[in-house]
Each structure stands twice: as C-alpha cells, then as structure tokens.
Amino acid sequence: MTELVAQQRTAKILSQRAHDLLLGHSFAHQQIGFIHTLDIDYGEPMKQRTLLQVEVAAQNKRQQSSTAHHKYRAQASEQLHKTIETAIYKQLEDIDGVIHSTIGIEDGIANILDILAVKSASVGRLEPLVNDINWLGRELVTLVNLPYYRNQRSKNTSVKVDKPSLALRYIGLDNLQLVIPTFAARHWMPHSTEPFSLLKRRLRDSAMANAIAAQKIAQINNVNDVHAFTLGMLLDVGRIALVRLYLKTFEQIWQRKVQLARNENQKDLHTALLELQPDPLFLTTLLSNKSIEVSAKVIDKMAFKYLPFKGVMQQLVNGVDKGDTLLPLTEVMLKARCYSQYLNLKEHQLIEPDEALSWFSHFKFTKTELKTLQSSNFTNLAIQID
Q: Dihedral (C-alpha) 68, 70, 74, 79: value to the nearest 10 degrees?
C-alpha cells in the first residue's frame, strides 16, 4: 500500500468515525470495535451452585426464545428502514420542499448573505430584508442587549435596543458577516434530536468549528475569509436536513406500522416494533454518504449571485478530473472540515497522534496553518460591539 493510498484510507476512516461520534461516544467506540470488558483477576473464582436439570432446561428455553425475538426484531428494523430509506430519497428529489419545509430556509437569508459578501454592502440594504425575517430581527436585538455587549458600548449609548434596524447599526457590517451565517445555521438546527441527546449540540459545534477553521485558513492563504466563513457555516446544512428528515420520517412510518400491526393483531410484530428506536448505524451511514451532496443541492438552490460556492461544492461532491486543480476555496473547505472533525475526535480521545499526522498530511496542512489553528478559539465569535 502506497503512502497516498494509506492516507486516503485513514482520512475516510476518521471522517466516518467523526460522523459516528455525532450520534454518541459509546456508539463511536462500538463502531471502532472496542470491547468493554473488565479483565481483572480477583483471585479464586466464587463457587456457584450447580443448576438443577429443570433449571438448565428452563434457561435454554429462555435463551432460544430471546434469540428468536432478537432475530425477529432485527428483521422488523430492516423492513422498517427499507421503507424509511425509500421515503427519504423520495423527499430528497424535491429539494425546494427540503429547503422550505424540512430545514426552514427563508429566501431572504440568501439575499442577506449575498449582500454581506460584497464591498457595496450597507446596513440600509440589509434593513428591509432583516425586517421580513422575524426570528433574525429578534436574535440581533437579543445579541446587542446581552450584558457583555451592553457594557462594551459607551455610556452614552448603553440604552436597551428594541429595534432590529438599530441592532444592525450597533453590530456593524464586519460583525454581521460572522453573526448572520451563525444565527442562520443555529436556527435551522433540529429542535430535538432524541434519542441522540447530544446530536443537536454537536451539529452546532461542528458548524462553528468548520466556519472558524475556514476563516483562519483562508486568511493565511489570501482567500476571501468572509466567503470561507460563510461556506464553512453552510457546509453542514445537508447534515441538518438529513437528521431532520430521518427523525421525522422514522416517527411517521414507525407509528403507521405499529398501528397496522395492532389492527391486524400481529402481536409479535407489534411487540418488536415497540422496542425499536431510530438506528444510529442507519443515520451515520446516511450522513456519511449523502450530506455533502445534499448541502451542494441546497446551496445551489439558494442561488447566490456574489458568493462563489457552486464550483466549490461541485468539487467537494465529485472531486476533480485528472489534470484539473482544486479551487483555492475548495482546499480551504477540505482542510476546515478535516480540522473541525479532528477537534471533536481529539476531545473524546478517539484519534491517535499518528492518525492525525496522516490526516493532516493527506490534506497538505502547512506548519503555519496548524500552528494558527492550534491557538484559535472555536467556540465563540471574536466580535466587539462599539
């Protein structure tokens, strides 16, 4: 195996591991193949009572019954998820429906992000668009009224802000380039991700780390850092869509099948279905295989005029033809996604130093990039409000 092939294999494995970790620490461990046993020698084993023949027979019967039930439940889950997969793929054919009904992206958001990306941007151009998006206006007003930012403003202007138009002026265009993509991504997150209790928070943290890493790498390489931050924040929109689609579709189809089994008096099937929950293995596979493709379709439909994302997303989905080169922003996004996934794996001690070294070599990180990223804050936006 050549070094390049080994690096590609490591990159693929670690990216999948990062997807597994979104769904839970124990699930990620399980997928790696860790076996949780306590191999501790306590000396002589305790003597146990010899089972009576009738007890042995009863135990064997229970085991056989349990094994049969587990097999039946696995078959029920497989059939359920075949139906769910078909339904999800059908919904993905209507990308407009995914954008408006599943994720909840307003048309005005794309226009706002477009305006913020050009030199002719002004608060006056943003104001009517923000006024049309109620939740965004509320978020901006809440932000400037936080005690931390109220204290930053001079004593003459530390009055409570109650209008989005005033909030826009206090925050300023430079800060809005970071704040609005962040608020948009947070607004699109699923309201609940049960039974994956930490998934929502990890999706949010992933988007933030992605965007900040992209911004830092872009600055080092003379790539437009506003474009990089914005695309870094939008890059996970496919994952957001798929998580929302899966959890909603699972609930709908599961309820329908439970009701049908009850009505038709299929007791074994009804019992098996009641024990089923959303499947982390199905979801991690869906996210790993489809999320970038869905992100590309959503971003394409957002029809940006000034943000140069279409070619970048095509390269992220399809790679490049032989002889072609990656766009500078594509290189930034590949590195940013790698580093944001690395941060999550490192936090949970799920990556070895040699794996990280191979991963960084695969994406051709420079020493300057790694040094800058190692000293960066990936949890908060570094903004000042005057």
A: 60
